[in-house]
Amino acid sequence: MTLRNFNDLERAIRGGWGADTTTPEHRPHWTPDNPARDQCGVTALVVHDLLGGELIRGEVHVSGERVDYHWWNRLGMGIEVDLTREQFAPDETVVGGVVIERPAEIVRLREEYELLRSRVVAELCS
Fold this sequence. Notes:
By secondary structure, this protein is an alpha+beta fold. Helices cover 31% and strands 24% of the residues. It is built from 3 helices and 4 strands, in the order ααββββα. It is globular, with a radius of gyration of 14 Å.
């Protein structure tokens, strides 16, 4: 597989999202109107697989309280890539961002990650 440009990767990732790649507890609430919703963890892992760099985790706050975490990537020269940032409602803000070591084995969301990764790789190889 040869990655021609970042736009191809972004298109493949966005095209691979579905209710079946989102966090299971949020799956009933996923809609095509906001396809990035709850896709951040699996998306960050797939970007990391293909481009390397660092995994970043911030906190999602509503009214000053943490309600969730948000994941994205930092590539070389400090370039941050967040393909799921648009998922948030106006009252949700992402705070902070720390480098997280990639787990040796993906346990949580393993099936969703593998499904998204297989779709992305298939699209990039076609």
